[in-house]
Amino acid sequence: MSARKERVLSGIQPTMDSFHIGNWFGALTQWVSLQQTHDCFYCVVDLHALTVNHDPTKIKARTLASFAQLLAIGIDTSKSTVFVQSHLAEHSQLAWVLSCITGYGEASRMTQFKDKSQKEGADRSTVGLFTYPILQAADILLYQPTKVPVGDDQRQHLELTRDLAQRFNSTYGETFTIPDTMTVVGNSRVLDLQDPTSKMSKSSPVGAVFLMDTNEQIVKKIKSAVTDSDRAVSFDPATKPGIANLIGLLAAATDTQIEATADQVTGKGYGEFKQQVADALVARIEPVRNATESLLKDPAHLQEQIKTGAEKAREVASQTVATAYSRLGLLTEPS
Ligand code: TRP
Questions:
Q1: Residue 185 has what pLDDT?
Q2: What is the rounded distance in angstroms from the CA atom of residue 332 to the CA atom of residue 89?
Q3: 253-268 per-position pLDDT tens digit
Q4: Count of CB atoms within 10 A of residue 20's CB?
Q5: Domains of the chain (ranges plus CATH)?
Q6: Any idea which residues carry the catalytic annotation?
Q7: How confident is the model over 169-193, as pLDDT tens digits?
Q8: Does residue 43 sit in helix, strand or coil?
Q9: pTM for this predicted structure
Q10: Residues near ligand 1 (Cβ within 6 A)
Q11: Residue 10 Cα, ligand 1 centroid: separation in angstroms?
């Protein structure tokens, strides 16, 4: 008899029209490969996107685009449960329960909140931004996963999630699986093409390559990537971060180890090398862009998968909420 696969859950915000290669090579390729070994739940966390100023005319299209891109990169809905967070009231229900066992001081210590609220200014930061990590804890605990693949910046949120799960279990009785953090492996840290000292981010459109960029845009962005005043390629992240980042991208795009890729390109001139990186990225991204476009052109089919995902997710999430409510001693609705 084969053992049951361990469960994994992760989430991504639909805050852009397109994911970028930092999201893809940094995290989403791991989501794809985990499908071979784990029972995966992947969530497009649209409610989290409401915590900062969002554009109501865009979020719907971005949620659809995010869902389609997940499928286009190889998330397979016959293997994994892929769903949209706001389709399940359970996320909000459990978030409330967890907020009632979270200390105000404990939530105040979340560094991501401190950073973001400092940027927004205290008056413009919302309570939603403050309780963001509690909603994230609910996203996770609803599905009883043993592992949560996330970037390093999410470690503290995962610690909070574990603390809340333990606290609930010890106060009200075993209800939640305590999840472990699974940090992203591989060619994970993709840097900004214009500023190779910071992480690639959507807020730097010229420094990021998006999965929906045209081939021309991809080539142009790689060719104008910031490097250094040397002539020949060598791999040295400390003194040559721009070149090292491009070597990392080439490795990721060709599914090769970074050392082997570095050996292969060492000594090349920058122009030739950049062309090679651009070609490799185009070859990898073009099919994903095409697949996304055809998914978006067939809304009925996409809607069907979104619906099935929500139904599969609800089977698990509704059970967890029912158990949590009953452990809390809430009166059940008479049937
Ligand atoms: N906060 C996560 C991020 O910014 C996104 C997220 C929301 C998430 N809910 C989650 C990640 C649940 C993992 C599990 O990357």
A1: 62
A2: 17
A3: 999 999 999 999 999 9
A4: 22
A5: 7-188+298-328 (3.40.50.620), 205-294 (1.10.240.10)
A6: 116, 199, 202
A7: 999 999 999 999 998 765 468 999 9
A8: strand
A9: 0.94
A10: 9-11, 13, 45, 48, 136, 139-140, 148, 150, 154
A11: 6
